[in-house]
Methyltransferase type 11
Amino acid sequence: MKGQEWYQTDDVAEEYDSKRFSRGGQLIDRREKEAVLDAIGPVDDKSVLEVACGTGRFTAMLADRGADIVGLDISGPMLSQGREKAKSAGVDDHLEFMRGDAARLPFPDDHFDTVVAMRFFHLADTPASFLAEMRRVSKHQVFFDTFNRFSLRSLYNWALPMGSRLYSRWEVDRLLDGAGLELAGEAHDFVLPYGFYRKIPNDLASGFRSIDEVVGASPVGDKVASVSYWDTRV
């Protein structure tokens, strides 16, 4: 998987949230959490696995809403940040963080109601095998996001530390067919890519976001969106 060693360094883990979700990145954090909650709905007593949970943004959020959730990641330092976040939020006693490989999920078939993976598939070197594992351990729903090939995301892809895998709609459809997943819902957003928002103050980012949403709501919005959210059923 791309970036596996990079994400396992202490300094990257410690600065991950502040670099990505401060300034204009706050808009990204809010929208991503909204997308997850819209897709999976009420989570009271629902069993959830978050694959590649990183610093636990979604893990802690879903635990706070009553989910029975496990956050899995390959990076020990990222998981340490997640545990601190869960402790600060007062939810550390009803979630579990586990170090593991998303290519070989350490759970039996149909173990979770829902499996979520955010900010993961742009790093996946073998996305079909990862998605098949997510489908295997889910008995109902798999939710994930992708960055899109025909978007402004491609313009700064070269500047990322380990590159980024971008997907066309055809590639996503092929992945779903291969994993035996049925598309139940989709959303497409952020004509301006994430990297742009992270570089500017939140107040300024809010103005650009308003313009972004207008373009996104237009007939061409879905075609030029840089990120897509895929809600699928087993």
About this structure: Strands lie at 47-51, 68-73, 95-99, 112-117, 138-147, 182-189, 227-233. The domain at 6-233 is CATH 3.40.50.150 (Rossmann fold).
